[in-house]
Amino acid sequence: MNEAMQTASPRSCFLSIDQFANLFEVLHALDYEVIGPTLDQEAIVYDRVTSVEDLPRGWTDIQEPGKYRLEQRDDDALFGYVVGPHSWKQNLFPPVSTLSTADRTDEGWQFTEVEQELPKYAFLGVRACELAALKIQDRVFMEGPYVDPNYQGRRLQALVIAVNCTQAASTCFCTSMNTGPRCTAGYDLALTELPDGFVVEVATPLGETVIDALETQIATDENQRQAEAARQQAVDQITREFDTTDIRDLLLTNLEHPQWNDVAERCLSCTNCTMVCPTCFCSSVEEVSDLTGDHVERQRQWDSCFNVDFSYMNGGLVRNSIRNRYRQWMTHKLATWIDQFGTSGCVGCGRCITWCPVGIDLTDEVAAIRESQT
Amino acid sequence: MNSTCSTTGENSITQANSWVPHTAVIREVTREVNEVSTYHLALSDPALAKAYRFQPGQFNMLYVPGAGESAISMSGDPDSPETLAHTIRFAGNVTRSIATMEVGDTLGLRGPFGTSWPLETCVGKDVILVAGGIGLPPLRPLIHRLLAERHQFGQLNLLYGARSPDMRLYTKEYRDWSEKGLLIKETVDRKNLGWQGNVGVVSMLLERLEPFDPAQSILMICGPELMMRFTARAAMQRGMTHEQIWVSTERNMQCAIGLCGHCQLGPEFICKDGPIFRYDQISPYLIVEGL
Ligand SMILES: Cc1cc2nc3c(=O)[nH]c(=O)nc-3n(C[C@H](O)[C@H](O)[C@H](O)COP(=O)(O)OP(=O)(O)OC[C@H]3O[C@@H](n4cnc5c(N)ncnc54)[C@H](O)[C@@H]3O)c2cc1C
Ligand code: SF4
Ligand code: SF4
């Protein structure tokens, strides 16, 4: 795509619902595999979608600490839900991947880099908090000193079609984290859903290519006004507030706070919060051999600091209690992440609150520590 | 992206796929003490072997297919990197598989990784090295460097504590080191018949060290966490400051490149921000139980 064709500020247009259905063909013609929201296992999950029929038309999600349930909407909205248990990290940083292989030869072991399958993804329906999460994982995996080639290969060719939230869940707190609900950067296209179509912001030449292949209209002032009102609805629905003032120092000066014992009595160490978190990146490597042992693969799998043997060393465990593991997770996510990567590791999506079986809410835990300070 | 020969030399780490091991051949095995041997490895790829450089204190990930990887420090002379020495204590899965290997066998090697002992800060200073047990190998490349440039430094001391007299590493080299100007003081936890030397913890040697000029000294410690804390405390009681003390830390490592999360200690990734830290940087976290 010709750089000169990039418009100075995002161009905006209106895409009717009928034309939106053609988006899939356009993306397929450009060799993209479309990953988007779809209904499965009584949740809205991100998976391969091939047509508009795969989207969760008319469904929404009701979320509270420890609760997630689907409900029918009284309209036909395609993106009328908030966020589910999945995030785009599963596509860029797959739950299982092979890093290298070893083969026994006459000259001894030969090690080979695995020819990675690098799917060309179009992510459809990326929320503002998720754009922030992508940016955080980019920092972790691509901005050194070491680069993860698997992540990088997938990320650099991904097309991002964002969707502005028009509603929020009780667990959302993106406004406190300055990550949403408005999509402001990191996308090729951003959609705001209206009853009869979408107001589309075109941010990159790639987005331009996609939108040029569809029939669009000029977005009218009325379209823009409606879109603004729809987006405002999400802002108004966000009730959860999270005071992050000096949070790094607050947590790191309270490493022996009694609140850690309190949360340890509730936490099941189930790893759910880390699995659903769009920024968590911990993994372990396992050996997978064939029967002869002459061909061995090194497999990386998602892991979690809540797993007991995660801190195994010298025949013992460093973090042998739930208290220590919860403390590691939360202080990493909210405090030491800032030292390591210059940003918080939390984008305020609220998944960890929703998917915690006992409804532990990290914002409450921080608030409890903060209150005891004053 | 299918090359197996990513370069490991300085400045090239960002281009390489740092996950992929290189083939290394065992050229020589030296039995040190019970359950500890030194493996001299040579990288099979001649270009790589030629480009490979490391700094004292850095480590490699040694890989035995089917068993896994372990972080092992370089223990040889950084100025003769034709073979790369690794002194290994046979502790678990990976290291016990290495124990069964012989000259000519191959294994995987990734590295060098991590930070190094800050030789520059030692110039014009008295240097005190304190090692506990298997903590001596990571200091040995530094000993080589200090002795090679002996005139640049003041008094050089090695304080070494081993579990028992027969667990002391590199004893054959002590004479050479002494002749080149390293003052060696030793202690053991348990003595045996014939041991005339000190008995007790290694921090005691620091408490008694004379002559000792706290303002002029740099202290570098490698050993178990508890031992490093006691040693640092003894040094501070004798007037040294946090900023003059350096330690080598340890955590489980899977990737060694800051991508797997296992080795975190507070804000630090031991693999890439460490293993060597200035004491004031890491001590607030070293003293927190279970962090
Ligand atoms: C920077 C660094 C330098 C080291 N240098 C040396 C050295 O020069 N010589 C030496 O003998 N040992 C050294 N070690 C310790 C050595 O890595 C462990 O003892 C070793 O991992 C044991 O491996 P294993 O698979 O045989 O043990 P197992 O107990 O079977 O361990 C399985 C896995 O657990 C992890 N693990 C277990 N113990 C440790 C540990 N103490 N530190 C880190 N990871 C651990 C490793 O990922 C290992 O592959 C070093 C450790 C670090 C972090
Ligand atoms: S946290 Fe904000 S951006 Fe994310 S889903 Fe909720 S409202 Fe949308
Ligand atoms: S910590 Fe919780 S709220 Fe923050 S990004 Fe992760 S899942 Fe979302």
UniProtKB/TrEMBL annotation, chain A:
<dbReference type="InterPro" id="IPR017896">
    <property type="entry name" value="4Fe4S_Fe-S-bd"/>
</dbReference>
<dbReference type="GO" id="GO:0046872">
    <property type="term" value="F:metal ion binding"/>
</dbReference>
<dbReference type="GO" id="GO:0051536">
    <property type="term" value="F:iron-sulfur cluster binding"/>
</dbReference>
<feature type="domain" description="4Fe-4S ferredoxin-type">
    <location>
        <begin position="337"/>
        <end position="365"/>
    </location>
</feature>
<feature type="domain" description="4Fe-4S ferredoxin-type">
    <location>
        <begin position="256"/>
        <end position="288"/>
    </location>
</feature>
<dbReference type="InterPro" id="IPR017900">
    <property type="entry name" value="4Fe4S_Fe_S_CS"/>
</dbReference>
<dbReference type="InterPro" id="IPR009051">
    <property type="entry name" value="Helical_ferredxn"/>
</dbReference>
<keyword id="KW-0479">Metal-binding</keyword>
<keyword id="KW-0411">Iron-sulfur</keyword>
<keyword id="KW-0408">Iron</keyword>
<dbReference type="Pfam" id="PF17179">
    <property type="entry name" value="Fer4_22"/>
</dbReference>
<protein>
    <submittedName>
        <fullName>Anaerobic sulfite reductase subunit A</fullName>
    </submittedName>
</protein>
TrEMBL record, chain B:
<feature type="domain" description="FAD-binding FR-type">
    <location>
        <begin position="19"/>
        <end position="119"/>
    </location>
</feature>
<dbReference type="Pfam" id="PF00175">
    <property type="entry name" value="NAD_binding_1"/>
</dbReference>
<dbReference type="GO" id="GO:0046872">
    <property type="term" value="F:metal ion binding"/>
</dbReference>
<keyword id="KW-0411">Iron-sulfur</keyword>
<dbReference type="GO" id="GO:0050660">
    <property type="term" value="F:flavin adenine dinucleotide binding"/>
</dbReference>
<feature type="binding site">
    <location>
        <position position="260"/>
    </location>
    <ligand>
        <name>[2Fe-2S] cluster</name>
    </ligand>
</feature>
<dbReference type="InterPro" id="IPR017927">
    <property type="entry name" value="FAD-bd_FR_type"/>
</dbReference>
<dbReference type="InterPro" id="IPR001433">
    <property type="entry name" value="OxRdtase_FAD/NAD-bd"/>
</dbReference>
<dbReference type="InterPro" id="IPR012165">
    <property type="entry name" value="Cyt_c3_hydrogenase_gsu"/>
</dbReference>
<protein>
    <submittedName>
        <fullName>Anaerobic sulfite reductase subunit B</fullName>
    </submittedName>
</protein>
<dbReference type="Pfam" id="PF10418">
    <property type="entry name" value="DHODB_Fe-S_bind"/>
</dbReference>
<dbReference type="InterPro" id="IPR050353">
    <property type="entry name" value="PyrK_electron_transfer"/>
</dbReference>
<keyword id="KW-0479">Metal-binding</keyword>
<dbReference type="GO" id="GO:0051537">
    <property type="term" value="F:2 iron, 2 sulfur cluster binding"/>
</dbReference>
<dbReference type="GO" id="GO:0006221">
    <property type="term" value="P:pyrimidine nucleotide biosynthetic process"/>
</dbReference>
<dbReference type="InterPro" id="IPR019480">
    <property type="entry name" value="Dihydroorotate_DH_Fe-S-bd"/>
</dbReference>
<keyword id="KW-0408">Iron</keyword>
<dbReference type="GO" id="GO:0016491">
    <property type="term" value="F:oxidoreductase activity"/>
</dbReference>
<dbReference type="InterPro" id="IPR017938">
    <property type="entry name" value="Riboflavin_synthase-like_b-brl"/>
</dbReference>
<feature type="binding site">
    <location>
        <position position="263"/>
    </location>
    <ligand>
        <name>[2Fe-2S] cluster</name>
    </ligand>
</feature>
<dbReference type="InterPro" id="IPR001709">
    <property type="entry name" value="Flavoprot_Pyr_Nucl_cyt_Rdtase"/>
</dbReference>
<feature type="binding site">
    <location>
        <position position="271"/>
    </location>
    <ligand>
        <name>[2Fe-2S] cluster</name>
    </ligand>
</feature>
